[in-house]
Design brief:
The complex is a heterodimer of chains A (237) and B (275).
Chain A (H helix, E strand, L loop, with lengths): L9 H33 L3 H32 L3 H34 L8 H25 L2 H31 L4 H33 L20
Helix pairs in contact in A: 1-2, 1-3, 1-4, 2-3, 3-6, 4-5, 4-6, 5-6
Chain B lengths: L1 E2 L7 H8 L7 E12 L2 E12 L3 E5 L6 H7 L10 E9 L2 E2 L7 H7 E4 L10 H11 L6 H14 L3 H4 L12 H14 L4 E5 L7 H14 L4 E5 L3 H7 L2 E6 L2 E7 H6 L4 H7 L5
Parallel strand pairs in B: 1-5, 4-9, 4-10, 7-8, 8-9
Antiparallel strand pairs in B: 2-3, 2-5, 5-6, 10-11
Classes of the chains: A mainly alpha (237), B alpha/beta (275).
Bound molecules: adenosine-5'-triphosphate (ATP) and magnesium ion (MG).
Magnesium ion binds next to helix 2 of chain B.
Chain lengths: 237, 275
């Protein structure tokens, strides 16, 4: 049960709104980092890659501020019920966003290496498709958060399955390239890490969506989602 | 007054009817309680099972009927002329409004700490010793001294009064009087202790001490506490009942009430919103 009424202590509302706007700022930066890092790979754009790496510092700084603000609200206002869930969720979500930022930064780093190498045909575009899907999920997850829309959050959770499948397909593709020609190994290893990291971003976005469900309903959703990453069982055959 | 009219309902029906678990360890069972002050309807069809060896918190906005309901549980409303109580209230299965129940005996079993401290116009010592004396709980003066000291210690006031036990209780500060009344209430070792905002005038240290006492009492007794401090309700109680305009709106395990209340009125109240 969530209340959208105002607190009698209006400063409490301002505090909660303040933290949530930090989350939105973070979310915007992370969305941009995901898209820009993938673009830097496709365009072999080292400058853009450098920009992504620099922007990660801002994301980290925002996460720290969210945690400080959350600690302050807990100490001063002893939030309970939906207020408590709001504070807990911002801590969790900012952690998820920070991890996504790190993965985007890692992608951008690998771009700087990959520009020197010959990439298998179409592979960077496949990576970008996957990155775009995760970014779209993140956008919806943040919208769901802002609107307290559990149904939208639920669709995000379900879409993570598609990302897992994209990853599985890329995994097999890279494996094939590496077996065909060992000179592909260096590039494919980097590309594989990138794909794996984007898949993990999907998991963090899913966790954000779960926080939205928790925030609205008070319950963490059941593990109703299909587990899509089957590569732990995969062997070259 | 429709005191103590047994209802034609089986025990299971009642549990189903009100959906708050009436555990096997239910100490107080109240069914369809209504209270009027003249024509003002202060408590409306309240049914509640209060568990033994448990702290139950009553919360709700000022004037919602918490004190009124609490007073039903030891028949303190009998002393208010305009008050009319109906319904069925049982302690250990026994109808406390039955004709043969002596309210004075009942109140020894169901102790109460009032919202406004009300020490007797007697010495500090006598305030505490009075109950044990009339109920024959002490065999000797030494016995009584011991009960008085232990009760004052439990109420976290011993150190402040031990050198002035013969001074009048009314000469203490507000917070000290409140603790004296707590000492008086625990001195008769009641099975049930009703506490109406027992910490409203206490500093944080004394509050912690009283909360510690409440936790200790829970091992053997059933404690019902009315409090305006949400944090206190969350800290000391295992079950919480939220009252609003004379109705019992929500009654559940305390962690449930404070993390995910089911009723919007509860949520608005506990989070400090305009409800
Ligand atoms: N002795 C009385 N005579 C007439 N009306 C009364 C009496 N005692 C209480 N009331 C009325 O009954 C209603 C419930 O009062 P009660 O004292 O039970 O509220 P409460 O929940 O304990 O409030 P508070 O938190 O302020 O102590 C109120 O409207 C009050 O004005
Ligand atoms: Mg009261």
């Amino acid at each position: 049960m969530e209340s959208n009424e105002r607190h009698i202590a209006s400063a409490f509302d301002r505090d909660l709104e303040g933290i949530q706007s930090l989350i939105m700022q973070m979310g915007g930066l992370v969305e941009a980092a995901i898209l820009d890092s993938a673009k830097s790979l496709v365009d072999s754009d080292e400058e853009l890659a450098a920009k992504v790496r620099a922007a990660d510092k801002q994301i980290d700084a925002l996460e720290e501020r969210v945690n400080e603000e959350a600690a302050r609200v807990i100490a001063l206002r002893a939030p309970i019920a939906s207020d408590l869930r709001t504070v807990l969720s911002v801590i969790k979500i900012s952690g998820n966003l920070e991890r996504c930022g790190d993965y985007a930064k890692n992608l951008a780093k690998r771009t700087s290496v990959l520009v020197q190498l010959q990439l298998p045909e179409g592979s960077s575009k496949s990576i970008r498709r996957m990155a775009r899907e995760v970014e779209a999920m993140l956008k919806d997850a943040l919208d769901a958060y802002l609107q307290r829309d559990a149904a939208l959050a639920e669709t995000v959770r379900q879409r993570d399955h598609d990302v897992d499948q994209m990853y599985n397909a890329l995994f097999r593709e890279f494996l094939t390239h590496m077996m065909e020609d060992p000179r592909n190994i260096t590039a494919c290893m980097h590309l594989h890490f990138i794909a794996k990291n984007i898949e993990r971003m999907g998991d963090h976005v899913t966790s954000i969506a779960e926080q939205v469900v928790y925030l609205v309903t008070g319950e963490i959703p059941e593990e109703g989602r299909l587990k899509g990453d089957r590569t732990s069982y995969a062997a070259p055959d | 007054m429709v005191n103590g009219e047994a209802l034609n309902m089986t025990h299971t029906d009642r549990i189903v009817a009100q959906d708050a678990p009436a555990a096997a360890g239910s100490k107080i069972s109240a069914q369809d309680v209504n209270v009027w002050y003249g024509t003002a309807h202060a408590i409306k069809d309240v049914s509640v099972e209060i568990a033994d060896k448990t702290v139950t918190a009553f919360i709700g906005p000022s004037g919602c009927g918490k004190s009124t309901f609490l007073r039903c549980l030891n028949r303190m409303n009998d002393t208010i002329d305009s008050a009319a109580v109906s319904g069925d209230i049982r302690i250990d299965g026994e109808d406390i409004y039955a004709r043969d129940i002596d309210p004075v005996q009942l109140r020894a079993k169901v102790g109460m700490v009032f919202q406004k401290p009300n020490p007797f116009p007697k010495s500090i010592y006598d305030n505490v010793a009075y109950g044990p004396k009339i109920h024959g709980l002490a065999r000797s003066k030494a016995d009584l001294d011991e009960i008085v000291e232990r009760s004052l210690r439990r109420a976290a006031i011993w150190d402040e009064v031990k050198d002035r036990l013969s001074a009048p209780g009314t000469g203490l500060s507000g917070g000290q009087q409140q603790r004296l009344c707590i000492a008086r209430a625990v001195a008769t070792a009641p099975e049930i202790l009703l506490m109406d905002e027992p910490c409203s005038a206490l500093d944080p240290i004394a509050t912690s001490q009283v909360e510690e006492l409440i936790d200790e009492l829970r091992e053997n007794y059933s404690v019902v506490i009315v409090t305006h401090s949400m944090q206190q309700a969350a800290r000391v109680s295992q079950r919480t009942a939220f009252f609003h305009l004379g109705n019992l709106v929500e009654y559940a395990d305390t962690p449930q009430i404070f993390t995910n209340p089911q009723d919007k009125r509860t949520e608005s109240y506990i989070t400090g919103r305009i409800g």
